[in-house]
């Protein structure tokens, strides 16, 4: 029952599989058949049985259908056999027709093939023309690129490369020649870059060599412009009555017009010759190189390279030659190279964008300015010649004005000029010290003689001398000063002119220039001239006559100081009433020199007196005097009389002081002669002879060798000698000892020590000659008196020492 049930269930499944096999494409039958084998073990056998049954059924149906259509098939075969004969006839006709058609179409085929071949060629030609039309612009542009490279038009070549890469090459990129061109372009760019850099290096070397010429041209143009401006300003000043006063007069208006005319003529002559930096230097390599690197995208690299190389050149330009300070050409070459360097940089700044910036040039200029100032400060200190320092100053001014015209700040340069001005003044002072020494060496130290009016006017034109009394005198006559006075006055004015030359063009006010001139003139007077005068006064060969003349000269130079102040005022156009105007210190300078000369007169006069005194040859043991004064003393008095005659031109107090000093020194020298420790013995005859000499001295003093003394003032110089000699001549010891210490004492000026010393010398003489042993009683009494006086004098001396 179970098997029967299983068999019943399997039969519908087999029918479904058969239906799928019949209705499904044979390619998909595999899975269906696999399901047969996946079923129960006997399913395959049963399926085969079912399949055989199905085949038998289909065979029966086919047989039925064939039996149904057999008669129609037979009829169709019969009809087909009837048509066979006609078909063969038709085949023969068709074959014949085909043969004839083939024979007739052979020529057409040949022509058709020719036409086809021509069409293909035409199509190919059209394609080639189209491709050539596409390639020809590329080839033409590449040929243009080669021509540009050959013509060294590198910037245009780079632009052509850009067009090739962006426009033309994309159209023909499939062709091999295009690939070759594309591969060659980077090499061409590198070649262009190297060539442009080589041109730039040549340009940098060229401007380094020509920077001095560029700077020289720029400085020349600046100087011409300044000359024209100064001439125009002078003409305007004349029109407004502000022309400069020089040498107590004014510059004529015609002279200013001539100056302006010459300046205009020079301007016209140079107008056609005005050269710019572009005329002197070809900047095209820089422009090309900049454009090339801009196109190549390496503009920043180029800018850094250019600035680095220019900084190196700047350091070379700023390095001076070791002997630059020896000549002005050395300074000029130094300045022109620097100006040329910065003129080029300024031009690059204004004609390019970004290659050189204002910040870069300012940084470079500040670096250069510090170096320039250090170099000039060092080298200017080696300049001993004021003319060279002045030329250096003029070069610095032109250098500063030139660069200022290009927008570079130059205030520090003008500050440096004030330092150099101090050095210039020092060199001027040294030069004028030599000038003053030469003047003093050449002077004869005697009043200037003039024999006619012309000579008189020549002297007064050189020196501001006014003396109505001298003017009234008839010719020949003499000026009180010597020849050195007008020469010194002229040289002081020349010094002021020289100092003024440095102060010009410093962009300072007239007040500042006036102050600078007065200060430098004060230095000349108080340091240089004063030192020269003091050295002159102290020279051993300068005698009393020369010293007297020097005092007279300094008096007149002192009086001329006000004219020097007026002179400075005139050339600077500054009123003397201006507040803070520096005064000249010449008054104190000449006063100090005069005082030194006066002191030297006193010293030399005393030395001369000592020389005469040294000639004294007394016989200190003589018994009787000669009856006349000593020869050396008479010569000394005659010398003093002649000297004091020369002193008449000196100020009264100077002559009186010199005369009093001489008399006092003579008195002191004579006193020292009596009290000399080497002198052991003095006789009464020698005292009497010495008294005759002192009388001559008193007579000289009473003769008033120098006017102005009141009463017996000059004779008081010999009062000590007179009272001492009177004491010994009269032998009035009782009065001396009795009145000693009294204000009204007759021998008030006699010192006990002095009297004791002289008395002992006389006592020793008496003992040596053994005179008193042979004398009478009076003489013995006198000897005892001497001893008594000696004792009393010693007691007075001891009392004085104890009191002291």
TrEMBL record:
<dbReference type="Pfam" id="PF20651">
    <property type="entry name" value="EXOC6_Sec15_N"/>
</dbReference>
<dbReference type="InterPro" id="IPR048359">
    <property type="entry name" value="EXOC6_Sec15_N"/>
</dbReference>
<protein>
    <recommendedName>
        <fullName>Exocyst complex component</fullName>
    </recommendedName>
</protein>
<dbReference type="GO" id="GO:0000145">
    <property type="term" value="C:exocyst"/>
</dbReference>
<dbReference type="Pfam" id="PF04091">
    <property type="entry name" value="Sec15_C"/>
</dbReference>
<feature type="domain" description="Exocyst complex subunit EXOC6/Sec15 C-terminal">
    <location>
        <begin position="413"/>
        <end position="761"/>
    </location>
</feature>
<comment type="similarity">
    <text>Belongs to the SEC15 family.</text>
</comment>
<dbReference type="GO" id="GO:0090522">
    <property type="term" value="P:vesicle tethering involved in exocytosis"/>
</dbReference>
<dbReference type="GO" id="GO:0006886">
    <property type="term" value="P:intracellular protein transport"/>
</dbReference>
<dbReference type="GO" id="GO:0006893">
    <property type="term" value="P:Golgi to plasma membrane transport"/>
</dbReference>
<dbReference type="InterPro" id="IPR007225">
    <property type="entry name" value="EXOC6/Sec15"/>
</dbReference>
<comment type="function">
    <text>Component of the exocyst complex involved in the docking of exocytic vesicles with fusion sites on the plasma membrane.</text>
</comment>
<keyword id="KW-0268">Exocytosis</keyword>
<keyword id="KW-0813">Transport</keyword>
<dbReference type="InterPro" id="IPR042045">
    <property type="entry name" value="EXOC6/Sec15_C_dom1"/>
</dbReference>
<dbReference type="InterPro" id="IPR046361">
    <property type="entry name" value="EXOC6/Sec15_C"/>
</dbReference>
<dbReference type="InterPro" id="IPR042044">
    <property type="entry name" value="EXOC6PINT-1/Sec15/Tip20_C_dom2"/>
</dbReference>
<dbReference type="GO" id="GO:0005886">
    <property type="term" value="C:plasma membrane"/>
</dbReference>
<feature type="domain" description="Exocyst complex component EXOC6/Sec15 N-terminal">
    <location>
        <begin position="50"/>
        <end position="219"/>
    </location>
</feature>
């Amino acid at each position: 029952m179970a098997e029967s049930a299983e068999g019943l269930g399997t039969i519908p499944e087999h029918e479904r599989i058969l239906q799928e096999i019949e209705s499904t494409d044979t390619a998909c039958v595999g899975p269906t058949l696999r399901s047969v084998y996946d079923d129960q073990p006997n399913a395959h056998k049963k399926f085969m049985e079912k399949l055989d049954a199905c085949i038998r059924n289909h065979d029966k149906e086919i047989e039925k259908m064939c039996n149904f259509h057999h008669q129609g098939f037979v009829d169709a075969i019969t009809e087909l056999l009837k048509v066979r004969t006609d078909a063969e006839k038709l085949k023969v006709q068709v074959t014949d027709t085909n043969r004839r058609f083939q024979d007739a179409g052979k020529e057409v085929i040949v022509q058709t093939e020719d036409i086809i071949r021509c069409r293909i060629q035409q199509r190919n030609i059209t394609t080639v023309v189209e491709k050539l039309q596409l390639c020809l612009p590329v080839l033409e542009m590449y040929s243009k690129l080669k021509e540009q490279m050959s013509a060294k038009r590198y910037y245009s070549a780079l632009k052509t490369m850009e067009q090739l890469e962006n426009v033309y090459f994309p159209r023909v990129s499939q062709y091999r020649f295009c690939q070759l061109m594309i591969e060659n372009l980077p090499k061409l760019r590198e070649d262009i870059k190297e060539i442009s850099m080589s041109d730039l290096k040549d340009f940098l070397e060229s401007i380094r060599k020509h920077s001095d010429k560029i700077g020289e041209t720029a400085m020349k143009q600046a100087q011409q412009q300044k000359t024209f401006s100064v001439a125009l300003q002078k003409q305007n000043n004349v029109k407004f009555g502000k022309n400069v006063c020089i040498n107590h007069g004014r510059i004529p208006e015609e002279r200013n017009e001539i100056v302006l005319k010459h300046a205009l003529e020079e301007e016209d002559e140079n107008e056609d010759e005005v050269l710019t930096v572009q005329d002197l230097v070809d900047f095209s390599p820089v422009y090309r190189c900049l454009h090339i690197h801009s196109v190549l995208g390496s503009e920043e690299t180029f800018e850094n390279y250019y600035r680095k190389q220019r900084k190196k050149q700047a350091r070379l330009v700023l390095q001076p030659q070791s002997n630059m300070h020896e000549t002005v050409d050395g300074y000029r070459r130094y300045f022109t190279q620097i100006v040329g360097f910065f003129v080029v940089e300024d031009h690059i700044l204004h004609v390019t964008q970004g290659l050189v910036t204002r910040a870069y040039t300012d940084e470079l200029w500040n670096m250069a300015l510090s170096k320039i100032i250090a170099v000039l400060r060092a080298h200017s200190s080696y300049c001993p010649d004021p003319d060279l320092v002045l030329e250096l100053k003029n070069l610095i001014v032109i250098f500063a004005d030139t660069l200022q015209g290009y927008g570079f700040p130059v205030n520090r340069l003008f500050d440096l000029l004030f330092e150099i001005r101090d050095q210039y003044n020092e060199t001027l002072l040294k030069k004028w010290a030599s000038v003053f020494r030469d003047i003093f060496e050449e002077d004869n130290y005697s009043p200037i003689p003039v024999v006619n009016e012309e000579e008189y006017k020549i002297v007064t034109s050189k020196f501001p001398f006014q003396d109505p009394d001298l003017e009234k005198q008839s010719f020949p006559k003499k000026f009180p000063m010597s020849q050195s006075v007008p020469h010194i006055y002229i040289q002081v004015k020349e010094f002021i002119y020289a100092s003024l030359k440095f102060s010009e063009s410093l962009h300072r006010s007239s007040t500042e220039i006036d102050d600078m001139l007065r200060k430098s003139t004060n230095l000349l007077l108080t340091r240089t001239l004063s030192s020269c005068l003091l050295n002159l006064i102290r020279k051993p060969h300068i005698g009393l006559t020369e010293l007297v003349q020097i005092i007279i000269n300094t008096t007149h130079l002192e009086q001329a100081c006000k004219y020097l102040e007026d002179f400075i005022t005139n050339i600077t156009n500054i009123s003397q009433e201006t507040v803070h105007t520096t005064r000249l210190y010449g008054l104190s300078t000449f006063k100090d020199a005069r005082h030194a000369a006066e002191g030297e007169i006193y010293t030399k006069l005393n030395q001369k007196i000592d020389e005469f005194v040294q000639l004294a040859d007394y016989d200190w043991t003589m018994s009787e005097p000669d009856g006349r004064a000593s020869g050396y003393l008479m010569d000394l008095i005659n010398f003093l009389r002649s000297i004091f005659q020369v002193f008449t031109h000196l100020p009264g107090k100077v002559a009186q002081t010199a005369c009093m000093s001489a008399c006092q020194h003579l008195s002191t020298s004579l006193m020292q002669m009596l009290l000399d420790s080497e002198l052991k013995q003095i006789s009464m005859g020698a005292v009497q002879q010495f008294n005759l000499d002192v009388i001559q001295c008193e007579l000289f003093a009473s003769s008033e060798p120098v006017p102005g003394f009141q009463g017996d003032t000059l004779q008081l110089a010999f009062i000590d000698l007179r009272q001492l000699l009177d004491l010994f001549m009269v032998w009035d010891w009782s009065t001396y000892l009795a009145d000693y210490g009294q204000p009204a004492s007759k021998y008030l000026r006699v010192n006990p020590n002095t009297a004791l010393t002289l008395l002992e010398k006389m006592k020793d003489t008496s003992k040596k000659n053994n005179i008193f042993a042979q004398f009478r009683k009076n003489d013995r009494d006198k000897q005892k008196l001497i001893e008594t006086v000696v004792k009393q004098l010693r007691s007075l001396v001891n009392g004085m020492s104890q009191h002291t």
